[in-house]
Amino acid sequence: MNQAGRCRRVFSSCGLLFLSVGCATAATALVSNDPAQLLKQAESAQPSNRAEFDELMGRLDQMAMRLSPQQKLHQRYLMARQIAFAGNYEGAMPSLKAIADQAVDPVLAFRASATVIDLLVTQSRYEEAFARLNPLLDQLPTMKEGDVRMQGFGVAAQLYNEAGQYDSSVRYANQIIKESTDAQSACRGWFYKSDALFESGSAQLPADQLHEGMEACGKAGDTLFALSFQYLLASFDLRQGHTESAIRVLRASYPKVLQAGFPPQVSQFEASLATAYWKSGDLASAVKFANDALVTNANRQYSESTTNAYRVLYEVDKELGDSKGSLAYLEKYVAAHDDYQSRLSAKALAYQIVKQQMLAKKLQIDGLDKKNRILTLQGELDRKAVETSRLYIALLLLVLASIALWTYRIKRSQLRFMRLARRDGLTGIFNRQHFVNEAERQLRYCRKSSRDVCLVLIDLDHFKAVNDTHGHAVGDRVLRRAVDACLAHLRSTDVFGRLGGEEFGMLLPECTLDNVLARVEQMRAAIAAVSGARDAPGIPISASFGVAAAATSGYELRQLMIDADCALYQAKHEGRNRVSLFEAGMRG
């Protein structure tokens, strides 16, 4: 996976909206012992300032006898939010759900519901999060308080962005910008809008959006969202290949990020600095920041920044010729990358499932309503002629047939979404997880029947230079051309998948050592011919192939991939654009 190929969301799977609630204005000095005033000050206190918050909550405890039931409910909400900020999501969830379900204070119930959605996203419970989002949005028009509306818009903008619904995300981000009355809220809106634009694949921000976002976030000071906007600017620079500019932006904000002390944001900056330094050729700095990111993420093993840090360490060791070190980091990178990609797929799939469930529920309600109407009509049929009775019965059958048809279409849509989750979005071949599943299934079959099988790893040569020189659009076309060239030489029983970025794998059942090299050589020649294709004229493209056979490596997929990677490394070492077969002597 190309490091700049996806948006590096600082708040992805971190549930940070609840951290920014009530932070539109800084907490003022204690001026009163009035419970309502103290609750307002605690609401406005920065969650990261534990001492200030604890002092406010302590004073509220001292006057517990003076608190009304509604004020006690508000106090309970603030404590649950602080528990969540400390990382104890399970501990905070029961109180927040209870507050969200109460009817005494609709505004507080709305806030608690929004916070519950954030915690569900944090725990990767995306289907539950989307199921709660729609009732929350239904209540949004009734909310008049500005900060509450900001929270609702923010929940929608972030969650739709997570699911890849960028138009919807931008719509709610624009509402934040439109209704914001302070710089922090405006900065948050511009961040969500720019993040959605980045996720949709844009290479740069429009000039007016860049100016407005920088101005709003500049006025907001060194808040989490203002620092994240700077991070997003660096991500745009990395996507365009402006590595030095990205480093300057990241290094300028990094001390402030450390001072803010929010671990997910710190690790994202460190992982991006590692990526930028690796791309610029400063390998020592790349290794330093990659290791810093791993330390910061000690309790977040499968975050995006952890994945990126392992990728940098793997690439650096590979460039330095440390095959043992690179293989060790490759295994860690693959594990982190697979889990992260699974979470991304789960978000999009959860959105579609909930959408289909809502449609099915609506159709079910409509069907029941129509059935009730028909039952009423049937009572009248007893007093009418037989011809009229037949007409109503036909109408009933038509309605039931319509419901059955809609149910069938919904089920078919759900199956289609599940199939899409198995495919790589760019090339149409298997994604890494499904390739691994299919390859392991084929290997079990080949082992049981003692059939020959070979594993081939493919890596496009100098593909980074193609992206840097000609842009990602041309790079994507080259990837598709290379895949098409290989597909022309594959059988229906062969398993072909994209492992990440410009790396591919294929499992060839019933393929012996005597004929595997000839088949792979045909693929190598076909890929080399892509440079004359109409989509990529004059761009020299070639690929290196590493081949491992069950006859020498056994039927375990992990060992086959390690041996094929050794052979691929040998092909790269010998000058690229060639096929290398694994031999037992290659094992170090």
UniProtKB/TrEMBL annotation:
Residues 451-584 form the GGDEF domain. It catalyses: 2 GTP = 3',3'-c-di-GMP + 2 diphosphate. Keywords: Membrane, Signal, Transmembrane, Transmembrane helix. Residues 1-26 form the signal peptide. It is an enzyme of class 2 (transferase). The keyword DNA damage does not apply. Coiled coil: none annotated. InterPro entries: Diguanylate_Cyclase, GGDEF_dom, Nucleotide_cyclase, Rev_trsase/Diguanyl_cyclase, TPR-like_helical_dom_sf. This is diguanylate cyclase.
